[in-house]
Write a structure and sequence with these properties.
- The complex is a heterodimer of chains A (296) and B (393).
- Chain A has 296 residues and is an all-alpha fold.
- In chain A, α1 runs parallel beside α5 and α5 crosses α6.
- Chain A is built from eleven helices and two strands.
- Helices cover 43% and strands 19% of the residues of chain B.
- Chain B is built from 13 helices and 15 strands.
- In chain B, the strands form three sheets. Chain B has a seven-stranded mixed sheet, with helices on both faces.
- In chain B, a hairpin with a 2-residue loop joins β11 and β12.
- The chains are: A mainly alpha (296), B alpha/beta (393).
């Protein structure tokens, strides 16, 4: 039972690390970035290429992946999303075009990684960091799981607090509430959007590196699967609420673990995604979402 | 060095054989044999076949390897002038991208394109099941490899040059007995028809023969990336053997997390762990054992000949079972065309049926068919942490 709980918390932390950046961009600057999964994968892939050439420790691998993620995310913002935003007729059209644009952009790094790996799994076997397993009275947990849980909670709570109390955070939230008014009030939307995308990309890279260590391997398609889970976690928690995405990630992971341990496993997706349906039926803004934060 | 010398000698033998065949073909032509079975006189200068395989996506490792097998075989067929001095087999390749709809529409397009005489179907069961009825209803010969599920060989025009995994997987029973496995837990990818069948029917069906009971059976879905929960559930039943029946990256992940969970016993796998998929697991992957229809480690004359040909075209690569299957599939087609003496689709189907009925020697050994479906005994292989090794031949 305790092992199942540890597994659920670790799984929820994986979802949270992945979803944090996506939620941050969606909930503040209104960018629902469907290239987030590709950025996540390609950051890990970049680190994999470098680790293959040079033996590196965990911290260096994470840094490389985070930097790669940040660079890619900013590039996507500047080269794809900003032109879309400039040309879109209104905010509704822009949101739809960004969504489709993100899906299109995601195909490029995916194709490159698929071509290079031939869709074979890749991992950090050449890294000097080796995963340790600890046995705590019959409950086993790995060093990477501990790092993932700790980082997910620290970053989740930290980003939520940053948005609540810092000037930049408040400015970002004001964009999420009303971008035009926030501009009139002197908020530099472009600069904040680039900052947000940098943080979101770095978080994707961080998640990519840690998940590769945790799972042992990723494939070029790994990001596609996780983006669905992240989407679910954000919707359940409430778009625009960082506390929501934290809770949503753990609710989703616990639901999946309970279903998996109590059934044959075939109902995992049906039940976990059924949760989204239920939440949307009875609380359209999600568990922690506020109606006024939702963009129209 | 000796291997390369052997390859050169075999290459010389192949050239000599090709010369003999060319002479024989020329003699046949001069005898004025036009259209009778076995004649190549009425064949067009080009006979086109299209390979519809995933070159990208989760099953790309198998699709790309299969395409290499087709390339090796078709080059050999053309170099030997097997279909006659003036006839060449031409291979087109299309990427299904791992999508069922794309695979189906490519089959539909190939049927509509009269320049194609046959299709090499997808290695993916999900895609093949969609392609098979399209080809069969349209009387287009389609040859599948690897796609081992039901619903692939469904009529006269559908052939499969890979034995269904369920037909050779029982070979694992001896290994199970040798490892004294009495309580087996199964974690299987329920979203693939082939592995669902192995996990739910084939492996449990070996219980009385191999002396074990299935203590836990857990299906996973395509979205499952973290295996700690299913592994925890399986280990709760204290099994002394675990079957991990997964595809691609799920294999190294499941093996890594299984070892991290403290399990040190034997692990049964499936050919989805082949193609170096276990490499990222490092030492954690060692010990996974599974059955394949072909392994280049299994030294036989026909296999060695194929390996030499393959390595001549793709130096320093070791051919995977997917390539061997495709190589034999291309030869089934070539023999069928030669038997038909025509590029007509129905005639080729009939020619392939005759060839399958008689059987022939291919890369995978002596090939015997049940109807249009290949049967082979299989070989047991194990991952030692860096490469596959042969457990039984």
């Amino acid at each position: 039972m305790l092992q199942d709980l540890i597994n659920a918390v670790a799984l929820g932390s994986i979802y949270l690390l992945f979803a944090l950046g996506m939620s941050l961009a969606w909930g503040t600057i209104g960018i629902l970035n469907f290239a987030h999964g590709s950025i996540f994968m390609f950051s890990a892939f970049t680190a994999y290429l470098i680790v293959n050439a040079v033996k590196l420790p965990l911290v260096a691998v994470i840094l490389i992946a985070a930097i790669a993620g940040a660079v890619m995310s900013v590039a996507v913002q500047v080269l794809a999303f900003e032109p879309i935003l400039r040309r879109a007729k209104d905010s509704r059209a822009a949101e739809m075009q960004i969504l489709i644009g993100g899906i299109g952009v995601a195909g490029v790094p995916l194709a490159i990684a698929q071509h290079y790996t031939k869709s074979n799994p890749f991992g950090f076997t050449n890294s000097s960091f080796k995963v340790d397993t600890f046995d705590l009275g019959g409950v086993r947990i790995t060093s990477v799981q501990i790092i993932i849980i700790a980082l997910a909670l620290v970053l989740g709570v930290g980003i939520a607090r940053w948005l609540q109390v810092s000037r930049h955070g408040l400015a970002l939230r004001s964009i999420g509430v009303d971008p035009e008014v926030s501009s009139i009030m002197g908020v530099d939307r472009r600069r904040l959007a680039l900052t947000t995308m940098t943080i979101a990309g770095a978080l994707a890279g961080l998640a990519g590196a840690l998940l590769t260590y945790n799972l042992g391997a990723l494939t070029p398609e790994s990001g596609e699967t996780l983006i669905l889970k992240a989407f679910a976690a954000i919707v359940v928690g409430g778009v625009g609420s960082m506390a929501g995405v934290v809770v949503g990630s753990y609710v989703l992971a616990i639901a999946e673990t309970v279903v998996l341990t109590q059934t044959s496993g075939l109902w995992v997706d049906a039940v976990s995604f059924g949760l989204i349906f239920l939440v949307l039926m009875f609380r359209t803004q999600g568990l922690f979402g506020r109606r006024e934060v939702r963009r129209t | 060095m000796s291997g390369r010398l052997g390859g050169l000698l075999r290459g010389g033998t192949a050239l000599f054989t090709a010369g003999l065949l060319l002479t024989a073909a020329a003699c046949g032509d001069s005898a004025g044999d036009t259209g009778s079975s076995g004649s190549s006189a009425s064949l067009p200068s080009e006979i086109k076949v299209v390979s519809t395989n995933p070159e990208t996506g989760a099953a790309a490792f198998a699709g790309l390897a299969a395409n290499k097998g087709y390339e090796v075989a078709i080059q050999e067929i053309n170099d030997q002038h097997y279909l006659g001095a003036n006839t060449k087999l031409v291979l087109d390749k299309q990427d299904t991208t791992g999508k069922i709809q794309t695979a189906a529409s490519q089959a539909t397009s190939a049927v509509a394109d009269k320049s194609y005489t046959a299709i090499f179907g997808s290695v993916s069961s999900q895609e093949s099941v969609a392609q098979a009825p399209i080809a069969d209803k349209s009387k287009m010969p389609i040859i599948f490899t690897q796609a081992g599920s039901d619903g692939v060989v469904i009529g006269d025009y559908t052939f499969r040059v890979t034995p269904p995994m369920s037909s050779y997987y029982p070979k694992i029973a001896d290994y199970i007995k040798a490892q004294h496995i009495t309580k087996l837990a199964i974690i299987y990818a329920a979203w693939t028809p082939t592995l669902k069948e192995i996990g739910e029917k084939t492996l449990p069906g070996l219980a009385s023969q191999a002396g074990f009971t299935v203590v836990s059976s857990i299906g996973t879905q395509q979205t499952t990336q973290d295996f700690t929960a299913p592994i925890s559930q399986a280990l709760a039943k204290q099994p002394d053997g675990i079957a991990i029946l997964q595809v691609g990256a799920a294999n190294p992940t499941a093996m890594t997390q299984l070892r991290q969970a403290g399990y040190k016993g034997p692990v049964l796998g499936n050919s989805g762990a082949s193609a170096g998929n276990l490499t990222p697991a490092g030492a954690n992957g060692a010990g996974m054992t599974w059955v394949v229809d072909y392994s280049s480690q299994n030294k036989t004359e026909s296999s060695d000949k194929f390996v030499a040909l393959y390595q001549k075209k793709f130096p320093s690569e070791t051919p995977l079972n997917y390539a061997a299957e495709a190589y034999d599939a291309a030869w089934l087609l070539a023999r069928g065309i030669k038997e038909a003496g025509s590029a007509d689709r129905t005639a080729i189907m009939q020619g392939m049926k005759k060839t399958a009925s008689a059987g022939f020697t291919g890369a995978m050994g002596q090939l015997k068919f049940e109807g249009n479906d290949l049967r082979l005994p299989g070989v047991v292989v194990q991952w030692d942490g860096t490469k596959e090794i042969l457990v039984t031949g």
